[in-house]
Specification:
By secondary structure, the protein is an alpha+beta fold. It has five helices and six strands; from the N terminus they run ααααββββββα. The protein folds into two domains: 97 residues, no CATH class; 54 residues, no CATH class. It has a two-stranded antiparallel sheet with strand order 1-4. A two-stranded antiparallel sheet has the order 2-3. Strands 5-6 form a two-stranded antiparallel ribbon. A hairpin with a 2-residue loop joins β5 and β6. It is rod-shaped.
Length: 171
């Protein structure tokens, strides 16, 4: 008996049986208008609904949204990459050296040392390693509608706009 039920469920899935027909879509939209919230099953009905099953005002609103717009990634995959950069530093060193002596003092009878500064540039090269996190592309299974958006026929629609259009439709 279980095997027959599993086979029947598989067959309905292969044939394209949809749980989202026009009447179930209308019931879900009515619940959205009255409650303002949807269950997971209601969200599934709207996501699997065909555009032809939607009421005309909702269909117009849904088709104006571009496919892939208002989508977010549930788990953004990141990886840490070690990178390096090299830098060149030029420093100037000053050294004081004795350049000679000269006569000094009273009538020049003494000898005084004479000092001069010598400057030289020293070039040093350094390699620095650092870690950087890189976002990878979002896997298809983690792409969902962003906050305050709901999947209707494969497009992410603002739930408040959908509720207001549904309110005008239902009355």
């Amino acid at each position: 008996m279980k095997l027959r039920l599993i086979f029947l469920a598989f067959l309905l899935g292969v044939v394209g049986y949809s749980i989202a027909d026009t009447s179930s879509v209308l019931r879900v939209l009515q619940r959205l208008r009255t409650n303002g919230q949807l269950s997971d099953e209601d969200r599934k009905v709207l996501a699997l609904a065909k555009e032809d099953d939607l009421p005309e005002p909702v269909k117009r609103m849904v088709t104006t949204v571009a496919k892939g717009a208002n989508t977010c990634c549930r788990n953004v995959p990141t990886s840490v990459v070690t990178k390096s950069r090299s830098s060149k530093r030029v420093t100037t060193h000053r050294s004081n050296y004795r350049a000679g002596s000269s006569h000094c003092g009273l009538w020049g009878w003494r000898r005084c040392a004479r000092y001069e500064n010598r400057y030289r540039e020293v070039v040093t090269y350094a390699r620095e390693y650092y870690k950087q996190s890189v976002e990878a592309p979002c896997p298809e299974k983690d792409v969902v509608c962003c906050h305050l958006f709901i999947n209707v026929s494969g497009r992410c629609v603002n739930i408040h706009n959908l509720s207001s259009v549904t309110g005008k439709l239902v009355g």
